[in-house]
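Weekly puzzle thread! Below is a chain. First person to post its structure in token form gets bragging rights.
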Amino acid sequence: MTKRTYGHTKSGTPIDDDLIENLAAEAEAGYDVDAILAWRGKRGRPRLGSAPSTVESVRLDPDLKERLTRRAEDEGVPVSEVIREALRHHLEAS
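Winning reply:
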């Protein structure tokens, strides 16, 4: 007899009756709320400065986009870092 599954977890583990029983037993035993909150606080992207960052949109023509991508690849950094550094340089030159 094959086990009945109810889908899969995010990691791909099949959700079956055994998993549901294990999760229910874990919940009934109680959770360490402090441990969960500490783990939750470590998720997400790290801050770039002292406050949360904003996302700004810019339009780039194909040539500029190609040059930007090439520069990022040459330096081994994300495109966003090249943009931030160029903006810093431009603002300091003013």
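Puzzle host: Confirmed. Bonus trivia for everyone else. Residues 79-93 form the longest helix (15 residues).
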